[in-house]
Amino acid sequence: MGGETMKKGLLVCLVCALAWFFVFAGIDWGVPSSARMSLVMDERLKNDAFYDSLVAARNLVYKDTKNVLFAAPSRRTDEFAAKDRIVVDYKKDGVTFYFSNYMRHYFLCSHDPDENMVFNALSNMHPAKLDFNPHFFVYGGGFLYPLGAYYKALSLAGALVLVPDMKHYFRNPDDMGRMYLSGRVLAAVLGTLGILLLVLFEFNRSGTFFWPAALALMCFTSPILILWSKITKPHFYVLPFVMLCVVAVHRFLETKDKRWFRRAMALCGVVAGIALTTGLFAALPLMAYFYIARETRPPLKVVAKDLALGVLLAALALVLLNPYYVLSPKELLADLSWISATVHVSGGLVSIWHFFRFGLGLGPSLLFLAAVCAALLRRKTAGASNWMLLGLILLVSPIVYRLPNLPADIRWTTFILPLCFFFTVELLRRQQVPQTWLKALVLACALAGFADALRVRTYCVNDSREATSTRMQAGKWINENTGGAGIGHLYDIIPWTFPPVRLAEHRLTVYGGIEELFKDAERPEYFVQGDIERYALTKEHEKRLYELYRLEKEFHNSVRLVDITSTLVPANGSIYVYKRL
């Protein structure tokens, strides 16, 4: 007993150490800060009149909708719809809508283009009026409501400034940064807890230290888990509820007690209530039920009753966490329509490759494939629960196939990644082969993943430091080397793709597409683009661009895992500065 306690203690220490190094390191990457605003703001603009213009700009953007998805220029048909060319010249025109709108992004947004959606959803709620409608359903109430309560608790404790007056955050950008940081910490803590639960569950099943330790190492060195664990989104946050469901399913298989099936189904409702895209997870307890039913052969009426009750519990949990799915179904359907529109181009086999390369990691991918082969070749030793896990993974694979061919989109499968590693460990430890050689192979592959993870973590760590942040360094260089020259950019002026430069000093030209730049007779002296705009360029576009501009300066992360960084993670994306020929 004493030995078991010591091993559990060591596993807890290992999980905490790995989480500290891979999850919490660099967790404050790209958040709003006074350091960033010092590069953007002119001293003349630090006054209430200008801050009022920022509030007014936001109010205009949301004058017809509270949903951030439909406030985007690409979804509008009014005067704020996307335009072929927008010119912002503070020196000539003073404060205009577009000048204020571009400026407010640097006060309120992180380097992730979607993270601010969470804060917009929270700001739509009015608890004093019993109005909890977020008017945003891409992320569920199982994520948004606890996050809102958490922020309120931090505010009451004096750890966070939570005020309805937006101008406070314009005067104190570091307070806005702490909002992002606090939300990320919550997601990181819960995700880490989920992995810890899975590791301890594996320890209880295997009774050894090696296999759960290998599981922990594989989980925390997954590139996608490293990069998307430190962000205020539900991808990592959902993990403890997923793991509790896995435990409930295993208990059901061991005891045949239907109460565990019902608990598992209710937990599936919670998981789906955090992010609808994880609803497929309900397949796991359903597979377990049919497996047990095949053995016990209950009457059809009993099966129908059990399944109906399980589905009812899942639906009840889902609706309790998301009452506005029922109260505001049109908004829900609109958001689901938006989600489906974003995956209209399938990455196909490219996305499958990204799942292995950036989801599982190179070394652990080999172990996973070896485990699948072992399951197929030695079916009797695999165990029913592992076959069900493999079935769930295969059910998720069409979703991976349908994802766009961007590595970052693998984040939507975060909930399944630890289970892939769990499946791997469970299958390999059952093999009747020399354990010394097997463990050496597992350790070698896990350490290969660890070496790759050391490179992956630099993205967020470097973006959290002014001296190594590509955007901060690009902003400084532009401020110091371009004078007041005009600058061109594509689509929008936001922290994700455009570095923090002194906006009042430059004539900014924002183009709706690269063709508009080519057609412009008054092309700006400089043109700036990030990875995501460069990704969209064809070879013909690049050729024409270099006929008009030369690459003057480029800023990259110290390590580059892919040529186009922003397609993997928004952290520390590359910035390219071109000068007109």
Topology:
Layout: H1 2-24, H2 34-40, H3 48-61, H4 68-71, E1 85-89, H5 90-93, H6 97-108, H7 116-123, H8 141-156, H9 167-171, H10 173-206, H11 210-220, H12 223-228, H13 234-237, H14 239-255, H15 258-274, H16 283-296, H17 300-321, H18 324-327, H19 329-342, H20 349-360, H21 362-377, H22 379-382, H23 384-402, H24 417-429, H25 435-456, H26 458-463, H27 470-481, E2 487-490, E3 507-511, H28 514-519, E4 526-530, H29 531-536, H30 539-548, E5 549-555, E6 575-580
Parallel strand pairs: 2-3, 2-4
Antiparallel strand pairs: 1-3, 4-6, 5-6
Helix pairs in contact: 1-10, 1-11, 3-6, 8-15, 10-11, 10-14, 10-24, 11-24, 11-25, 14-15, 14-16, 15-17, 16-23, 20-21, 20-23, 21-24, 21-25, 23-24
| Terminal residue distance | 75 Å
Strand order of the largest sheet: 1-3-2-4-6-5
Number of domains: 2
**Helix fraction by DSSP (H/I, runs of at least 4):** 55-70%
- Low-pLDDT segments: none
Number of strands: 6
Mean pLDDT: 89
Rounded Rg: 25 Å
Largest sheet: 6 strands, mixed
Shape: globular
Quick overview:
The chain has 581 residues and is mostly helical.
Account of the protein in words:
There is one protein chain. By secondary structure, this protein is mostly helical. It has two domains: 2-22 and 185-456, no CATH class; 64-108 and 466-581, no CATH class. It is 62% helix and 6% strand. It contains 30 helices and six strands. The protein has a six-stranded mixed β-sheet. α14 (239-255) runs antiparallel to α15. The chain starts with a helix and ends with a strand. The mean pLDDT is 89.
